[in-house]
Amino acid sequence: MAEEERPAARPLKPLFSVGSRKSASGSQSLAAETAVALSYGGSSHAVLMATPADLVDLAYGFSLTEGIVRRPDEILGVEPVPFTSGIDLQITLAEDRSAALAARRRSMAGPVGCGLCGLESIDAAMRPVPVVEGDDFTMSTDDVDTAVAALSRHQPFFAKTRAVHGAGLFRPATGLVAMREDVGRHNALDKLIGALARQGEAAAGGAFVVTSRLSVEMVQKAAVAGAPVLIAVSQPTALAVETAEKAGITLVASARGDGFSVFSHGSRIRQ
């Protein structure tokens, strides 16, 4: 499967800078943002604004978390096709999944900040989440701080641009297992989930750590992936907490190295 990669950052010079930014008046690295279509059987299903890197991972992660496929091997191929205005990810599914998708075909198109735009019904947006196993998995409070610090150290695009989100899988015994970045928080998490699926790496026995707030769709994606713990540097929404409770996920928020809050299934965090 080919990867269509475009620069994830590009240099641009501001017209002028003032105050503390006056010394940064030269070219600055800005995050790239590209329209990415996800097409199944030649028909566009979703259009996302995304960082044009790790797009095959995005195709796998999106297909899994949206319930289009149940397993990675139900995706037979991903072919990124470049256009002047963006990239079309042409995804080939196993025959039974193509038939299932045709039966529930819906249109979806949304900007970076919204993962639910285009859903045709409230029921589709509020779909039931699977219950995550892993009550035997625990991590210490120090592990939470270590996970956040590890993610911060392994974000090359963020270091250049200060304008992308990161999502990683952290295991206390081994550290950061995988990490992906994107201008969209949902995309970053989908890319991570897709990368893990392609590598045959399970999210169970680890914690997802993300650089964004926790909205309900972030919890839904973590539940599909089977991550027992979801750590974020910002706060959750009330609905995200309710959904995490139902899904059996430990929700850790405002984790920035100086403390954090646990909102659900707190027995997994050892104090």
From TrEMBL:
Gene3D superfamilies: 3.10.20.10, Cytidine Deaminase, domain 2
Cited Pfam families: FdhD-NarQ
The name this protein goes by in its record: Sulfur carrier protein FdhD
Gene Ontology molecular-function annotations: sulfur carrier activity; sulfurtransferase activity
NCBIfam families, alphabetized: fdhD_narQ (TIGR00129)
GO CC terms, sorted: cytoplasm
Annotated region (Disordered), positions in chain: 1-22
